[in-house]
Amino acid sequence: MGEFELIARFFDRPLPSGSGVALGVGDDCALIEPTPGQRLAVSSDMLVEGRHFLSTVDPAALGHKALAVNLSDLAACGARPRAFTLALSLPRPDEAWLGALATGLHALGERHRCPLVGGDTTAGPLNLCITVLGEVPPGQALLRSAAQPGDDLWVSGTLGGARLALEVFRGRVPAAAVDFDSARRAMEWPEPRVALGLALRGVAHAAIDVSDGALGDLGHILRASRLDAEVWADALPAHPALATRPLDERRRLMLAGGDDYELLFTAPPSRRDAVLAAAACSHTPVHRIGRLHPCPQGVQPGPARVLDAQGRGLAGPFASFDHFKAEPAADA
Amino acid sequence: MGEFELIARFFDRPLPSGSGVALGVGDDCALIEPTPGQRLAVSSDMLVEGRHFLSTVDPAALGHKALAVNLSDLAACGARPRAFTLALSLPRPDEAWLGALATGLHALGERHRCPLVGGDTTAGPLNLCITVLGEVPPGQALLRSAAQPGDDLWVSGTLGGARLALEVFRGRVPAAAVDFDSARRAMEWPEPRVALGLALRGVAHAAIDVSDGALGDLGHILRASRLDAEVWADALPAHPALATRPLDERRRLMLAGGDDYELLFTAPPSRRDAVLAAAACSHTPVHRIGRLHPCPQGVQPGPARVLDAQGRGLAGPFASFDHFKAEPAADA
């Protein structure tokens, strides 16, 4: 199977009607009709074998996740998905593997009306790079820099499941089969919070998706908005698979785990009802987990303070994931 | 140096005024203002070490080429560059190497008013994936499917230089130092024909950029437009470094070499003056190298026939590059 047959068989699909895609896979460029008056949102994410996924991963899950992490970036901006490109480097064209990858990819794309419109295929170490395009009205994007002092801090869904699965895969912690299965699902089939992101336009101030660890990702909001924050450890929504873990481990998994693809966002206390309405209409649970404070003049916005239910500060480390630094604590 | 410091140091640059980029590097998404009434053109290309470039490549040249091959796709559609994203997987963050890569990348982006607006950085085998965004008025994109019977076939610049350099690097053919230097420049610093692509709007019918080999890339136009073609071997513009090669080798390098990033395009004979005017105003040499013919009903559009100056057919093979098939003949 050659490169062009591979593209035709697995990646060239009829475009859904009303997609606004004037030209899809198969020319030098894809052509898309922007919706008048909208801003274009664009994000790229690269997934590398052994780094972002294990070589044994179900290829359907890999296809799903590669697109999901990109849609999650659109969600964090409150942007509506329009289309995506896939650049794929793979050691050899295995038909069953590619068929499953394409199935996972197209299924998630169809659910979000976000078709594959182009890309590239090459031989090489396994690597998937997706670029996703979305739209958002001017002034309505949820930016990291838009948080305000006094804002509530919220998070969608639950935290820590994906990281627990990774730790079990690495043989670092044991887990009951039922917990491992549900944690593994969180790791391999994350659900991008697109509907919540759209519903939070005009309600939330700032947002980010939790990819490297909740506390580290919150740090990006704090630095961009020049604010401090407190996070209430006992208000954090734990993934069900974490229910039987020791308290300290559970907190680390939730605060520093990463790969959650939940939305972490801020909104003024006056909009609590609107946040809950956005959560309800998008069928996405949300939890209020902290508060933002002014950052004293001349002080660098630091990591958020983590407090227990009695308001006592908890010592970390809750290190976030950094691709070029040592891995987070192995005992997380 | 961590992931975020790396991005800040090498990839986050002030946006040029009037870029229409509302938000660049550093949030979940970049935000771009589309020009009203334009179609969005999008293309992704992935470059893998050992496949698309040698590990010893000058990183400035690599940065240049990674963006150049993407801009070349925009050129082939007649689209004007707007912005690009870079996803980069690299084994370790080497500051000198990254600095040079960024220099090559930003310099070409600046010349085309096409800023880096976002992307991703991760550890892994060296791999660069660029997605470029451009704009073209509705109905004016140059499509592979728009060639007409009777069209002239044209090509910009010269062919074969990049492939000659590759063959010398591989130790398969010798070359004088002066020829190798100039061929190597063609391979490492290709100049995307953006200005020519823009000037050919409304003049050319179909276009493609020569990445896998002129004859193979022409095949994409023929299949998409359901046409046949003749190519005049003696009218092909050879890269100067090919001047002393044997005739047969020179033809193979030009027809099957690949990595040229010239524009191969078709236009009606009535528009020859307009083609030459487009070439002149974009300061890009062009050569007329063949003609398109109707494809008999029921016959699959095949590879173009290659004719010598006496109209005699030349036997191939002039195999094009395919990432999942055997490499083109080593004696090319």
Mean pLDDT of chain A, to the nearest integer, reads 90
CATH architectural category of the largest domain in chain A: Alpha-Beta Complex
What is the rounded distance between the termini of chain A? 44 Å
Query: In which range does the helix fraction of chain A lie?
Result: 25-40%
Instruction: State the assembly state of the protein chains.
Output: homodimer
CATH topology of the largest domain in chain A: Phosphoribosyl-aminoimidazole Synthetase, Chain A, domain 2
Of all chain pairs, the largest interface belongs to: A-B, 72 and 72 residues
The count of strands of chain A amounts to 12
- Overall number of domains of chain A: 2
Task: Write a concise keyword list for the protein shown above.
homodimer, about 325 residues, alpha+beta, 60s Ribosomal Protein L30, Chain: A, Phosphoribosyl-aminoimidazole Synthetase, Chain A, domain 2, 2 domains, four-stranded mixed sheet, 12 strands, about 25% strand, disordered C terminus
Can you describe what's shown?
The model of chain A is unreliable at 326-332 (pLDDT under 50). Chain A is built from 9 helices and 12 strands. Chain A has a 6-stranded mixed sheet with strand order 8-10-7-11-9-12, sandwiched between helices. In chain A, strands 3-6-4-5 form a 4-stranded mixed sheet. Chain A has a two-stranded antiparallel ribbon with strand order 1-2. Chain A has 332 residues and is an alpha+beta fold. Chain A has helices at residues 3-11, 59-77, 95-111, 161-169, 177-188, 194-199, 214-225, 247-256, 272-281, and strands spanning 21-23, 30-32, 39-48, 80-90, 116-123, 127-136, 152-156, 206-209, 227-232, 263-267, 286-294, 305-307. Chain A has 2 domains: 3-136, 60s Ribosomal Protein L30, Chain: A (2-Layer Sandwich), CATH 3.30.1330.10; 144-307, PurM-like C-terminal domain (Phosphoribosyl-aminoimidazole Synthetase, Chain A, domain 2), CATH 3.90.650.10. At the A-B interface, helix 1, strand 2, strand 3, helix 2 and strand 4 of A face helix 1, strand 2, strand 3, helix 2 and strand 4 of B. Strand 3 of chain A pairs antiparallel with strand 2 (30-32) of chain B, so a sheet runs across the interface.
